[in-house]
Structures are given as C-alpha cells and as structure tokens.
Amino acid sequence: MWRIGCHGYYSLLIVVLHVIVLRGSASVQIATANYSRDDFPPAPHFVFGAGTSAYQVEGAAFEDGRTPSIWDTFAHSGRFGDNNNGDIACDMYHKYKEDVQLMVDTGLEAFRFSISWSRVIPNGRGPVNPKGVQYYNSLINELIRHGIQPHVTLFHYDVPQELEDEYGGWLGRKIVKDFTAFADVCFREFGDRVSYWSTMNEANVFVMGGYDLGIFPPGRCSAPFGSNCTGGSSATEPYIATHNILLAHASTARLYKEKYQAKQHGLIGLDILTYGLVPLTNSTEDVKAAERVHDFFHGWFLNPLVFGDYPESMKKIAGSRLPSFTPHQSKLLKGSCDFFGLNHYRTMYIKDDPDSLKTNQRDYLGDMAAKMLSKQGHVPSGQFPIDPAGLQIVLEHLKEVYSNPPVFIYENGQMTYHNTSLDASLNDTSRVEYMEAFMGGLLEAMKNGSNAKGYFVWSFMDLFELFDGLKSTFGLYYVDFNDPDLNRYAKFSAHWYSSFLRGRTINQYLQDH
Ligand SMILES: *[C@@H]1O[C@H](CO)[C@@H](O)[C@H](O)[C@H]1NC(C)=O
Ligand SMILES: *[C@@H]1O[C@H](CO)[C@@H](O)[C@H](O)[C@H]1NC(C)=O
Ligand SMILES: *[C@@H]1O[C@H](CO)[C@@H](O)[C@H](O)[C@H]1NC(C)=O
Ligand SMILES: *[C@@H]1O[C@H](CO)[C@@H](O)[C@H](O)[C@H]1NC(C)=O
Ligand SMILES: *[C@@H]1O[C@H](CO)[C@@H](O)[C@H](O)[C@H]1NC(C)=O
Ligand SMILES: *[C@@H]1O[C@H](CO)[C@@H](O)[C@H](O)[C@H]1NC(C)=O
What are the UniProt keywords, alphabetically (predicted)? Predict the structure, then answer.
C-alpha cells in the first residue's frame, strides 16, 4: 500500500490508499490564449458562478428546529481535532445577505448551494419546518433580486441522522421514498424560482469515501480497506448505497418531470466527480485498465442514467455484490438526467493491477484492478497539479460515448492550506493560475463541441472542507475563523474573477496588478 504526499491526505478526491505521487515534472499546460467572458456564450445560456453546500457554510446547526445529519455526527467524532466542525462554519445562515452582496460585488451570474434536509424536514420525515423553508426562501429571493441564478443541490453528504439510525440511510431502500418526499417539498416551495436542481453532489465520491474507505460521512468501511470504521462492508456497501442513490434519483426525477417541470420549466440532473483518466503507458493492459476505471468511477452512475444499466465490466468483476435493476427501474433511470454536474479537479494516470483480482476479499477499489497515480508537476505540495487537458478528455468522452449531454462544471478550484497570515492568504496567485488554465481548457472543449452550460468555482468562500474541516481552503473569499464576526476578505482570485466577469481578458488584470 502506498501513502501519498507528506500529509497523509491529499485531496478530496483521492483514493487515499491507491494514489502514488509520480516524481518528476508533469507538463503543466496553461492556456496561453488571452480569452475573455465574451468568448463564452452569454448568460443565461452559459453562466459563471461559485458554490458552497449547506453544512459547510450555514452553521446554526442547532437553531430554528434543524436536527443533526450524518455530517454533524462525523465532524463531532473528533477526527479533525477539537472544535473543528460545522456548528458555526461561516454562519451564512445569519450572514446570507452580506454574502449575496459579495456575490454581486464579484459579478457572479449564478450561485450553487445545497438545502439541508434536516433543516427543512427535521428528523428526515414528517412535518415541514417553516423556519427552514423561510431561510431558503430568503436566500433564493435575495439571489433572484440581484439577478443571480440559483443552482440547488438536494443532497450534499448530509443524510438526517435519524434516518441513518432508523434504517442505515442510503443502505436502506426506504430512503428512496423519504428522499423523494423531501425533494417534493423543495420543488413545491422553491421551484417557482429555482430552475436547476441536482439530486446528488459527487455521488461517486460520497459512496467511495463514506462506505469503502470510511473517510467521509457516515464513515462506514471494513478492515483492511479502511480504519476507524463505524461498521460496514467495503466489499458490498458502496454498491448497495449507490443502487439506492440511483433509485432515489430516478424516483425524484420522475416526480419533477411529471408534477413540476411543465409549469416550472426547470431541469434536473445529478453530479459526480470526474478525473481525467490517462493510461500510464500505451500497453494494452494500461489502456484497458483506464477504460475499466472509467466504468467503475464514472460509468457506475453515467451508464444507468444514460443507458439504463451498470457497465458490463462492473457486472463481470463485482458479480453478485452489484445489485441489479428490474426492467421497470432501468426504464426510470434511462434518460432521467436533463444534465450532468461534473466536479473536476485533476488527472489520474492509470496502471493495470491484475493482482488485486486474485483475492475474493475485495473492496470496490480492489474491483477496479488498477492503481490511480497522480503527477505533482510544478506546484507546491498540497496544491493540485494544473492539467486542464484532463477536463477536455472527460468532456470529449461525454460527447463521444454519452451523446453529449448538457453539463455544468459544478466544481473546480485550487486547494491551499489555511494560513493565519491574512496577507499570505489573500495573495492566492496559484488559485488564479489554476482557474485560468481550466477555464481556458473548458473553452477549448466547447470550441470542439462540448455541450457545457456553466462553470462554478469551488468554493465561493473558505468553508468547512470535507476531508479536514477548516484546515484547507478553496475560497475566493478568505473567512477569518478566529474572528467572532467571521469577516470575509476578497482574495486576489476574487478580484481576478470579478475582472474577468466584467469583460476584461484574463491577462489584463494580471498586467495591471
Ligand atoms: C483514526 O482516528 C484517530 C483518532 O481520531 C486519528 O488520529 C487517525 O488519524 C484516524 N485514522 C484515519 C485513517 O482516519
Ligand atoms: C502513447 O501514444 C500516444 C500516441 O502515439 C503518444 O502521444 C503518447 O506519448 C504515448 N504515451 C506514452 C506514455 O508513451
Ligand atoms: C503561510 O504563509 C507564509 C508566508 O507566505 C508561509 O511562510 C507559511 O509557510 C504559510 N503557512 C502555511 C501553513 O501554509
Ligand atoms: C504574491 O505572490 C506572488 C507569487 O506567489 C509573489 O510574486 C508576489 O510578490 C506576492 N505579492 C504580494 C503583494 O505579496
Ligand atoms: C475534437 O472533436 C473531434 C470530433 O468529435 C475529435 O475527433 C477530436 O479528438 C476532438 N479533439 C479533442 C482535443 O478532444
Ligand atoms: C490581452 O488582451 C488585452 C485586451 O485586448 C490587452 O490589453 C493585453 O495586453 C493582452 N495581454 C496579453 C498578454 O496578450
């Protein structure tokens, strides 16, 4: 087993135990073109935004009737250290007006956020909490009033703890009905103003981190595939949870299309994390391994949603551990996404690993029979290498294999460590370099026919991160977590993005500053 980097963890996407950092220089491809906002289609046909999610920014964890989710429980288990949880986070629950004003100042055209299930329906099922509904109505109205398009995620890692305790959350088939009922409330209350709905955020990473490696909520896994497991089976639960997530998505999408779409004119999709997948060598084995990793990592969701069934390679390797769809379920799934959300950060180099299939005791990652390797390139340890070609590979693949569905790049951005020096934190040149390269790569892919409809920076502000809480940051805005007022400060990246959104070329701002 390989460990990665010198920090033990590396990115939200990492497959912690399987990533090797390749030494040497990766070719860092920076878009050289001096492009501007005008090179992309105008809003609302294509929008530039930024994102957050409920638990990561709202705080007010125990206020106005909200009950805990599995993320509260996970964060409170102490794994990120004392007081490193989302109880207060950025306190956006109270500061949303100020934050929308910052979005206006930045020139954001769209804002992506999620709705906390246990705030709207405490305990997950039953009566609706008027104060929860009121918060999201206020936020949505504030966005609309300023011409910022809301993009809403229904599930962002936060199953109500009550449902986790009752039937195991996504492991229980009952969640299909409960999730659909929650979505129904959201469509009914907010759908007159919200046109872009994602059922799930980064569904593939949620099940891998939450049920195979045990590093994300609900922290389930089994030895030797994870440590600190709260119970579970890395061999079967990732597949079971995914199956129920897909069925809940299909049920929700059908509800939206039958009951709301004709009058609300919105769209519904699902979001996954994507990697640019490149065979490490041109050997037949590595090329096939890269296809297999694509099937397991992307196709696990894309194939059922586009074609109605799991990829053949998964059925063959996972066998009876992979649940199957009835013809009725398959029909409901097929074509249930009006668009896909893609969270994209990095490229992985794939090396065939046939030995992993020699044991019957395999987890989901072992079933892939491949190692995912990352190249560090010319960026400091702890930051993501800059490889926009990986995004182009993903978009090209969606175009060729999945009939070019509309896609939103719902997350992309650079990680840096939280630095108590304000000056150091605000001077985030590496974030600008990263965004500039990926936005340029996206433009190239669109010129080549990709059906991309938007680009959202992760994240709008520093927030409670998935894998280490407040220690690493992706924000355009710095949040001073040591200040009781949690003041926000625009980083260099916020100024640069703002200049781009106001029509200046990517290089103009840099030349002037
Ligand atoms: C397991 O938990 C302990 C104590 O919370 C922590 O120090 C350790 O890093 C955890 N291990 C992993 C792999 O998360
Ligand atoms: C694989 O082949 C392609 C096309 O011939 C070439 O561009 C690429 O550099 C090769 N990759 C490796 C790792 O040898
Ligand atoms: C914070 O920034 C200073 C100044 O650039 C740097 O020397 C220090 O290593 C940074 N700390 C962290 C934790 O990145
Ligand atoms: C910001 O960082 C860049 C490179 O990391 C450095 O060249 C520049 O001098 C810094 N600017 C300020 C104002 O510290
Ligand atoms: C651009 O699109 C064409 C036709 O679909 C395809 O053959 C080609 O590989 C694409 N180029 C890139 C860089 O993806
Ligand atoms: C980019 O374009 C702007 C506006 O056309 C111009 O002012 C600037 O000098 C250009 N920068 C580079 C590096 O080409």
Answer: Glycoprotein, Hydrolase, Signal
